[in-house]
Amino acid sequence: MISTIKDVAKAADVSIATVSRVITGSAQVKPEVRQRVLEAISSLDYRPNISARNLVMGKNRTIGVLVSDLTNSFTGEILSGIEEMCQTFKYDVLVCSTGGDIKKEAYYLEQFEGKQVAGLIMIPWKLHAETVEKINSMTIQIIMVNRNNSKLTVPTVAIDNYKASYQMTNYLISKGHKRIGFIRNSVDVDFFGLDQYRGYKQAMLDHLLEVDQRYVKYGDFSMENSYRIVKNFIVDRDMPTAIFATSDIMAIGAINALRDNDYKVPEDVSVVGFNNVKMALLYRPRLTVIHQPLYSIGTVAVKMIANKKDYNFTSENRVVIMPHKLIERESCGPVNMNMKQPPSPRIWGEETIE
Amino acid sequence: MISTIKDVAKAADVSIATVSRVITGSAQVKPEVRQRVLEAISSLDYRPNISARNLVMGKNRTIGVLVSDLTNSFTGEILSGIEEMCQTFKYDVLVCSTGGDIKKEAYYLEQFEGKQVAGLIMIPWKLHAETVEKINSMTIQIIMVNRNNSKLTVPTVAIDNYKASYQMTNYLISKGHKRIGFIRNSVDVDFFGLDQYRGYKQAMLDHLLEVDQRYVKYGDFSMENSYRIVKNFIVDRDMPTAIFATSDIMAIGAINALRDNDYKVPEDVSVVGFNNVKMALLYRPRLTVIHQPLYSIGTVAVKMIANKKDYNFTSENRVVIMPHKLIERESCGPVNMNMKQPPSPRIWGEETIE
DNA sequence: TTGTAGGCGTTATCAT
DNA sequence: ATGATAACGCCTACAA
How close B307 gets to chain A, by Cα (Å)? Predict the structure, then answer.
């Protein structure tokens, strides 16, 4: 049987008010009484009921996190930062996963509102127009992670995707590449993919290079899709000399497609990634990438909720930009002018996870 | 301003009891009244206060999850199963991460007890003796995932690590390997590492093969450590023909060390992994592994809490065994009797994540 | 079918 | 320093 504050009061022969004082430390209690209470607590194995406490306190020390995919290490690394910072701020972390399902997204948004969480951090794959509207009209504090959009009015943490992409494209160009494949994401209204594409385009333009739409493809963050995209480059016998994938997993998919067809990376084709998840370093060749401070992004998101006043968000001043950097590793080299074409395209099975 | 059930009652001109009835559906309400209430709810944008509801219902629809590492995709995949099943059972998922810190482990165990969660699922790296004791004496329902121990008295979900390991070792032997390196984990009292080692040993014994302790090493689930272990095999000029790593990441670390020194996998040395996280398939060569149904393990853990009575746990009958399988891919081949030794061991930098 | 009222376990505001 | 007691928002007998 679970014991309540009343049981403790009875056992220690004091009022419940006194018990409450010793557990909250909200007021002085005579040491000997305090001792009696403490003993009663431990002998009865008493723990305060959180629901009751939250109810009377009118505040919910929990932060909700709404993610698209928990198995993704990108999510995991941000989540890790969120969790750590919540520990220091004494927030509970409530996690829900949508799998990218827009219905679930709407449902959980309402659930979280019902729970009246202290804040909600969203780590979505893509931003649907309907969701954006809903988000803007929510009464709870929402922080958007790594996604942005002109219609959005809630605070956001992200890197400067435009600059990062511009920088990486410049780097590729500096290595002599002119035909640069670009695997982007998130059609829709999402600024994530848009900013990255703009950065790529501008860098090309600044070097008087043509943006050839045959080389600009839409992925969906999956390795399978980028594998297919590169496979089509091979089938079409029209391979760019470098491929800029806007996620590490997509970069790996691209390299795998290349390798499975006897292209060498980076000798024949250079491939670069985006994010710098752990796998970017585990994979061989190690990926040259744009590094995003995922863990820090998570911690900042929590701070934005905990110290809302300090940030003083307005509709103009609502996005916190985190630093990124370009990390040179092994998957990118100088352009190879005489890239060999394989004798003939092969037949491939699709890659799937058993 | 957040509205309560009273506001709704006033707006709809009924009692709060009636409002409560329409939101819970616990009793019949005249359709027109019901309609009025519904309208009031939506116009006031009312959401029931979860704390109040939980308080009066005397139950806490939340399941705690205590993990060691959120960035690990092993954790992510189990968590994903947990989350999904919690959705269907209408549980909230409260996540805490310890980073393997035993103090934090104890702290969170108490926190969860205080919250009186419906159940607590633990996904630890290793099982410390002190923790085991604490776990056994807890009043809340705990489910242990993927770890076991003779001292433990709480329900557990896991695969049969002994059989899995036995099977994999047999497979290696069937490929002609006799000198098989084994990278194990979790010293302590943990059955996880122990069972796997026993399986390896038995398979060797059953084939009259010597278990050479020079080839049995302790990793810590990290890629860095297994990299170092294999590097030492090279330095010692004493390389087994196959390496059985008890986690995929450690297998990748082993392969990377091999590759960085011009050993070919699987031509020169075979390497196999354990778990089958997504990376096992993304990496090249694709890893031959023991597959663990991580997602299902997560779902089962939740079911064990939700349908506790059905499982009828006793101290003898407390572990639920999930099916595993051996998946043949590319990282393991027949033994190479004439494995070349590199001219001389090189100097390596340690692998670190920036 | 609907309303009244008691109680869930806490915290906090009064007195004392 | 301590003890009554009134909230907190909700559910549910019990009455009407």
Answer: 20
